[in-house]
């Protein structure tokens, strides 16, 4: 087992200063941004990279021999290489796209739709985000396949015995989140993939909440597909990627047709480009992905082991403060947990709670968090969610706790 990362090796105040937005005020009070599971803030280096692209290098990629086109292409493909290195995969197995939702839909329509038939099944878990539910429902309706659901335990962990028992011969694909966006539960995806592989089941892992907060070695996980989103990992919105095994990418037909994804077009037919470009039709989010490359460089410089250790330390403090507040219901108490806490105050609606916290300068998420089936499991319509990142501070946690106590008094 690796030794814990040395959190004190970094000046976290200096790291925080890299994020311009964190210095602003909301409702006359210093901002406490605890909505990182929704989107992460951007360091100055990412903002300047995007700005610099538009100021000095703006051109389309792969379609021009002039200097600007060459510079744009080099920067864009360079971002793909950096992202691949960050996740320990090959660049030619990494499809750049708008994020996890697009990535999962790509697999649903390009891999699953041509293969599934009546009698087949898609296995999902109770804690999935809607983006890892709805595409499979749409595909099931069109193919005659059915959806099976693996349940969770009251503490928010997957019932692994039930999950493995549900891996019956008709199951062709398993969709599972690496880290729950509501509960923070970290699922043992390597073990899950090993069990699925033994049964011949293809696995897609939703890595949206994992890659921004911990070191992820996709190659070591043993999945078939891994989807993630750039804007949650300090990158621009509209960025992300799908990693897929090379044999899958070679066999899958394109999801969207158009420019760039072709080698030759005639009215008699089209010869498609090699993967991953076969799946990247049209002009991509060039500046955004170049910015994501800068975000990866930033996270690499911090060290993901230190990022995880820092957030684990902050989570322990947050849990301690919440435990001291009466009348609070916390959802998800898994031992393996990321820095995400969903909660409710007795007698208060989640939206009212979040609105009053905002008046105190505290930004938390309220709602169903795109996880209706999980809300129904706990018998609630919505929760508040405080989600931390490495640039948050212990002082912010104490201010959040003080604001929550004040708000609870107003709602009592």
CATH class bucket of the largest domain = Alpha Beta
Side by side, the strands of the main sheet go 4-10-9-8-7-5-6
Assembly state of the chains shown = single chain
Give me the secondary-structure category: alpha/beta
Count of discrete alpha- or pi-helical segments spanning 4 or more residues: 14
Q: Would you report the number of β strands?
A: 17
CATH architectural name of the largest domain: 3-Layer(aba) Sandwich
**Helical amount:** 25-40%
EC number: 2.8.1.7
Keywords: Pyridoxal phosphate, Transferase
Organism: Luteimonas gilva
Cofactor: pyridoxal 5'-phosphate
Blueprint of the fold:
Elements: H1 12-16, E1 25-26, E2 29-30, E3 32-33, H2 44-57, H3 67-87, E4 94-97, H4 100-112, E5 121-125, H5 134-143, E6 146-150, H6 160-165, E7 171-177, H7 189-198, E8 202-206, H8 218-221, E9 225-229, E10 240-244, H9 246-251, E11 262-266, E12 269-272, H10 286-302, H11 304-323, E13 328-331, E14 340-345, H12 350-359, E15 362-363, E16 365-367, H13 372-378, E17 383-387, H14 394-411
Parallel strand pairs: 3-15, 5-6, 5-7, 7-8, 8-9
Antiparallel strand pairs: 1-2, 4-10, 9-10, 11-12, 13-14, 14-17, 16-17
Helix pairs in contact: 2-10, 3-10, 11-14
């Amino acid at each position: 087992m690796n030794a814990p990362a040395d959190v004190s090796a970094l000046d976290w105040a200096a790291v925080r200063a890299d994020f311009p937005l964190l210095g602003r005020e909301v409702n006359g009070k210093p901002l406490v941004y605890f909505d990182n599971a929704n989107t992460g803030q951007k360091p100055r280096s990412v903002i300047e990279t995007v700005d610099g692209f538009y100021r000095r290098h703006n051109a389309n990629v792969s379609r021009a021999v002039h200097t600007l086109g060459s510079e744009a292409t080099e920067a864009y493909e360079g971002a793909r290489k950096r992202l691949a290195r960050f996740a320990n995969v090959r660049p030619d197995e990494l499809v750049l796209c708008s994020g996890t939702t697009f990535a999962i839909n790509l697999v649903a329509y390009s891999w699953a739709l041509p293969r599934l038939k009546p009698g087949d099944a898609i296995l999902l878990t109770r804690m999935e985000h809607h983006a890892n539910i709805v595409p499979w429902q749409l595909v099931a309706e069109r193919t005659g396949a059915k959806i099976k659901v693996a349940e969770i335990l009251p503490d928010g962990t997957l019932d692994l015995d039930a999950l493995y028992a549900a891996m019956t011969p008709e199951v062709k694909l398993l969709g599972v989140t690496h880290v729950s966006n509501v509960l923070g539960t970290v699922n043992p995806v390597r073990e899950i993939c090993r069990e699925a592989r033994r049964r011949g089941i293809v696995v897609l892992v939703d890595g949206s909440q994992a890659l921004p907060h911990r070191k992820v070695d996709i190659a070591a996980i043993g999945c078939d597909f891994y989807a993630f989103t750039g804007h949650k990992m300090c990158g621009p919105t509209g960025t992300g990627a799908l990693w897929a095994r090379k044999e899958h990418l070679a066999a899958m037909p394109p999801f969207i047709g158009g420019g760039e994804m072709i080698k030759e077009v005639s009215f008699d037919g089209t010869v498609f480009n090699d993967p991953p470009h076969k799946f990247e039709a049209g002009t991509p989010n060039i500046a955004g992905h170049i910015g994501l490359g800068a975000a990866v460089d930033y996270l690499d410089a911090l060290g993901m082991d230190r990022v995880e250790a820092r957030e684990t330390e902050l989570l322990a403090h947050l849990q301690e403060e919440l435990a001291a507040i009466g009348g609070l219901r916390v959802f998800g108490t898994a031992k393996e947990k990321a820095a995400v806490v969903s909660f409710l105050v007795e007698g208060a609606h989640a939206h009212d709670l979040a609105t009053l916290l905002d008046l105190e300068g505290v930004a938390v998420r309220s709602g169903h968090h795109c996880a209706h089936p999980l809300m129904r499991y706990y018998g609630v319509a919505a929760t508040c969610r405080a989600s931390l990142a490495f640039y948050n501070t212990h002082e912010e946690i104490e201010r959040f706790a003080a604001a929550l106590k004040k708000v609870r008094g107003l709602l009592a």
